[in-house]
Amino acid sequence: MDFWLSYLTLASIYVLLGLSTNLLVGIAGIFSVSQAAVFGVGAYIVAYFLMNDLTSFLPALAIAALGCIALNILVTLPALRVAGDYFVVTSFGIQLLATAVFTNWTAGTGGANGLPGIPAPDLAGKALNSTSSVAALCVGAMLLGCLIFWLVMRAPFGRLLRAIREDEIAVAASGKSVLRAKVSAAALAGAFAGTAGGLYATFLSFIDPSSFDLDASILLLTMVVVGGARTLAGSIVGPFLLLALPQLLTLVAIPTTVAAAARQLLYGVLLISFMVFRPQGLAGEKL
Prior knowledge:
Radius of gyration: 18 Å
Structural class: mainly alpha
Strand order of the largest sheet: 1-4
Number of strands: 4
Largest sheet: 2 strands, antiparallel
Order of helices and strands: HHHHHEEEHHHHEHHH
Number of helices: 12
Distance between the termini: 40 Å
Strand content: under 5%
């Protein structure tokens, strides 16, 4: 029972990350490979506030979300001065820089050893120590995130983002502010990623840089591509499916020393296969 609750909890957290990545990559057309870095910032902020007993869980989560909104905006503003492949390279550099900071800033992040002993989340002064209560919290956050994503996509702002993805020049010629729309999308994506980071830190009670490195960003992109970009369903299907695949690998008799490499190889094969044979993903819009 605890296994399924843990799987549901982790999948719910990654759905929030899927929404964040899908909003940038699938909806707005901003191909960023640095969302894992934003995810990590949210996790470390919540861990810092809770471990030092500065605030309770919800204020710490709100601060993390606001911090990630500000970070995504600061990163997006200069990066949007370049386009296409150059933006990918810029976001790639940001991800590598964040990983270096997470690994070497031992006073703030614990360095490569990570931060153990992060307190469990609490609501109304009551600690959520059971797996079922944390699962309910994460599922509730996932449902709220999905509702926000659904409402945004049906609002004029969502239609504007889709138009920018299709023809940015035409949108600018119509008098709409492309930069403002992209920055707003980055802000919302930052809120999703920051919230996911806070939930992730308190669920596992331990975080280290390996959870927020380039491999994590590639995993998020793979989830969006496999699940299906541009749709809410794709942001849900991808995380639930890809988090189940490592469990299938346990049924195969492979040495534990190559299990991690085999998982990354599987993710890479899936990413390439879907990009070539089914670019819309399992539940995405037909391209």
